[in-house]
Amino acid sequence: QQQQQQQRQQQQQQRMAFVGGTLIVVLNTSTVLCKRASAKQGGVFHYNPGAVILLSELAKFLSMLVVVLATGEFSWPAPRKLLNFSVPALLYAVNNIIMFYSIAMLGPASSQLVYSLKILTTALTLKLALRRYYSTMQWLAIALLTAGCVISQFQVGGESLSLRGPLMGYVLTIFMCFLSSSAAVSNEFLLKETRGSIFYQNMQLYFWGVVICLMNSVYEYAVRLRDADGGLSGTPAAGAGGLGAFAYVWGLVTSITAGFSLLEWGIAIMQTIDGISISVVMKYADSNVKNACASLAMVLVALISSWVGWESGSVFLFVGIVAVCLSMHLYVNYGRGTDGDFELTWGNVKWILQESWSKLRRYFCAR
Known about the structure:
With 367 residues, this protein is mostly helical. It is 75% helix and 2% strand. The chain is built from 14 helices and 2 strands; from the N terminus they run H-H-H-H-H-H-H-E-E-H-H-H-H-H-H-H. Strands 1-2 form a two-stranded antiparallel sheet. Helix 1 (2-37) runs antiparallel to helix 11 (262-284), helix 1 (2-37) runs parallel beside helix 12 (287-308) and helix 2 (49-70) packs antiparallel against helix 9. The chain starts with a helix and ends with a helix.
């Protein structure tokens, strides 16, 4: 009977992991494509991308708060410990806002490929800051990842090679990689130093995400008031009958969702569910499933972007995608050995490639 109960629990965990992984693939692909669809020509948006992040962070904060209250874990955190979470929250907020412009400038597939370099920047940051150990295989996987990202961004123009996107798009995306790695290191340090479940810690992180994104919206609204004729002329606050603070707050609320359509609301909702799905996968599965889902989403984004006409498909692009997906798989599955000695022979490399392909094929065929 105990064995049957363990089997049922294992089957339930597999179902939860499968549901979470499917949601990651669908939502990750849809969110990236919708961000590109919401951009105008030249990488300009008719709404404030920070407002989308604000709504998403608010939804995630409320969901974590409900979980913490339901489990009876809620308690007021110490002000100093709560303040510490503002650092990764600020980095994540800036990173998520820049993501919109990176996708608009480079295109969905190219942006996601170059953003994969965050594995390189995170490894370097963890190595320098926390003295994290990385095996030889992990460094080889990171080298393959870097080569795949570089190769994917070239295209043949006439008789010469050229970059697929503008230089500013690459600068922003690489800057995002450093923001992401810095946020990951600071967040990992806090998670290890702070007591409480992952839900309680994420609640504090999302709280600061809401505060920081709200400050961005207040600044955007103040700029709009300043640029309006006569200070408050033509703004929602002016038409509220001079109610002072209430008029200002009402104007701020309406300005947050200014320019929103069903597409922008959908982005906020999908980004919220995507974040929760990642937590589900990490709870019931592991990073292998997460990386497999991210790789599949990257392939789907590239195929759909080429089909729609946002990006031109090329041999360089798809070779780069294969290299990046393979490197992510090798990085997770064959990186954490008991020692750092890896004998780089053709037999070992051939065995690793065969095992990686076999595992990926079994995983996706079983689904």
